[in-house]
Amino acid sequence: MTINMEEAVKWMRTTLLEETPHSALGASSGDRWLNCPGSYNAQKGLDDTTSVFAAEGTFAHVFSELLRTFEVPAKDFLGMKIPDCKGYEDFEVDMEMVDNIQGFVDRAGEFGGDAFFEITVDYSRWVDNGEVQGFGTMDDIRMKEAICKVTDLKYGKGKPVFAEENTQQKLYCLGVYEEYGHLYDFEGFIIAIDQPRLDSYTTWEISLEDLQEWAETIVRPAVARTIVTDAEFNVGDWCGFCRARTRCATRITTMLDIYKEHRNVASNDDLALILPMFADIKKWMTESDELALSELAKGNKVGDYKMVAGRSSRVWGEEAVVVKALKKAKLKVGEMYNKKLIGMGQAEKLLGKTHVIFSDTQVVLKPSGKPTMVPGSDKRESLAINAEEEFG
Description:
The chain is about 40% helix and about 10% strand. The chain has helices at about 5-15, 30-35, 40, 50-70, 95-110, 165-180, 210-225, 250-260, 270-295, 320-330, 335, 345-350, 385-390; strands at about 115-120, 135-145, 145-155, 190-195, 200-205. The chain has a five-stranded mixed sheet with strand order 1-2-3-4-5. The chain is globular, with a radius of gyration of 25 Å.
């Protein structure tokens, strides 16, 4: 099956503009409603938010679907843009996307077997609270003999996500079993998380028996708690995408209590207790500040605070007008412009990260990264530090 650039643009636009239904008990938010059942009711009536990063991820997913549907190589669509497409026209298939999405398609296809991708699966046998049922869209499914492999493409460059015990994918596996269990004699699943822009690809296996036990003992009881009037609230990583996070009393109280209790740290063990909360405290403070500013912008009172014009920096006007004025002021062209070598990321966008120059150790250097702290559950290897060498 072939498709040319014009046809691909039309197909991409049609697919991008399709309305995709979402469930309030969706798999992508599974960690949140499993751990914080009170968030289900707390989010009702609150507007959902989106970002340019989410839109870019959708664009990349649809592009990957195009490649798998028509079995065509990503390089054939280098430079493709989708005009007049509700924000998606801001993205282009550059060499970085060609490399990353082709890599995802290749890795997903290595398993072989029957292929299904970008399809909706229903796991409402376990996720149904009487108001909402659970369903979601899976990126890539491969069925072979008694094993099913599910691969999730995460195109962002933010936080690493790992396959082990991944709630989102386990819920999707339940949906796959429900949809295709009568056709395939499943014994287990391989879960893969592919984050090409972070060079991260992890896998994890779970048996059908263990998956069903998790669904019955963990998922089903948690779903029942979401519609309880006084459902509990719990603070954790899952707060990040909760629409109620900026007004959540439990989150606010937790942040303040942590500050009051641990503002005088006595030992390394005490420090370890509050480290997981540092990032959330910073994020909570930023979100609270942004929320207060948005309320003032709407004309609502926030105590005695008011909105004023912030500090402003001078900027040049239209370039042609500025150049004319600078020439009149006797500046030479070489003095008006600064030349700067493009960054590594921009070079990868233009050439693709698999280009031969990026493997040349004289062209590309890889210095040691600045040490950073992560929880012990992080899958990366611990950095060995020689105290004598470091502190001499």
